[in-house]
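## retry 2 of 3
previous attempt timed out at serialization; input unchanged, resubmitting
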Amino acid sequence: MITYRPLSPGNTIGFAMECFERGLITKEDTDGLELKFGNHQAMAKMVKKIAFREGFGNVLAEGSLRAAQQIGKDSHRLTMQIKGSELAGFDPRGAMAMGLGFATYKIPSTLDIPEIEVILVEQPVASGPFGAKSVGESGMILVAPSIANAIYNAVGVRMTELPMTPERVLKALKAKSL
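## retry succeeded, writing output
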């Protein structure tokens, strides 16, 4: 099961493509896929292999750092990650505090969040690259849990349903006091 940030598969596959082009892995390693930059068919197939942990997809499913540990051959030098999490798809130099955030914030990884069952629905989306859409983002959107924790810390009731309206908070407070 794939349970990490949606940008991880793309960055991890990019790492694998770099390894392939440098000769650190071969078609024999990649289940016959020619993982070269620009080969979007191979990339799409590898996303599916990662999601179902099939063949070489199982090696990449834990991210580029762990894949590099299995591949060896100094491939760790090709990873683009901080503390085992792949880099964002934007330039963090535009946000001054982002470097500090990357250095100190524990970005959840596959070991930190519960398993999410992935059901691939073959319906292309025009706005996604090659018609793709995110696999794991919904499990990583942290706004609602953060608000729920803030409510719990403020008033002592655990909110478990969305939307967390004032009426629902009041109802939970009344139920707690009974």
